[in-house]
Fold:
Amino acid sequence: MNMSRRAALQSTFAFAASALLPKTAGAQDSWVPSKPIRTIVPYSVGTPPDVVTRIVAAKMTTNLGQSVYVENRPGATGTVGLGELLRQPPDGYTIMTMLQPISVAPALYPGLTVDLARDLNAVGQFTSYCNVLTVHPSIPARTVAELVALLKAKPSDFNFGSGGSGTPAHLSGELFKQQAGVSATHVPYNQFPQAVGDLLQGRLQFMFVTSSVIVPHVQTGRVRALAVTGVKRISALPDVPTMIESGYPEFDVSGWDGFVVRSGTPARVITRLNLELARAVQSPDVSDRFVALGVDPVAGDPKQFSDLIAAESRRWGNLVRSTGIKVE
Structure:
């Protein structure tokens, strides 16, 4: 990481950490875990949320002197893992990585009885990242405008993939279709890596892919990046414009990860978990690894993360309803 980038992160983390510090000397020790903490990742091993969670959990283990271990419970847009969390006692010994697809689950699954605001307590956000609109090199498009022109001319020739209905890759694709006024066929895969593999092989023509996954393939020329979905360019792909720069001023899509616990978890437990999460994320070894993956480290407080989950649930729920997206 360059020095200006590191300095900026350290300044941000110093402020965040000071806001999270307890007001009394003994407050941080008001809850001390007496057994290992189980961290549910509702996606498969090797997926982006799994990778970043393992980095954070390892650092929390070191700092706490108590094991914070990861257990993968993939399936049904993250709701399998969510269901497992809600079956556990609200004592802080089971936490879960919460990410954007789960926030849209109530809209995707009308029969789902979970109320995110009622059933979950936020601990804190720890990452933010963008997707990258990429095409296979066989597609003669080097800008978003050129891709849109191709899509309008021959929509039946274009497929885009995702790791399943309601995932960031899918919702980004649907938002793109809506804002650009184009058509393309969505191909949902059981596993995200399968979709990426088919993009690399040319069986998919374009796809919105998490930056941490696709940047190495862009750098080796196996795919071509047309735009990133955040509000700013990313250091790993400095010459790739944002969707906003490409003519879509309302296309701001950022992925994120954070920890949640079951509602009813004591406030002192959440406070300690949040403090340890912030300490892990602000450590140089964790933040440097995140940045190398194209991921921005975040040291968020519980209210900020709770508000983000609610806002994302409204935003993407509206898109699901307006486009008629169904689980396939």
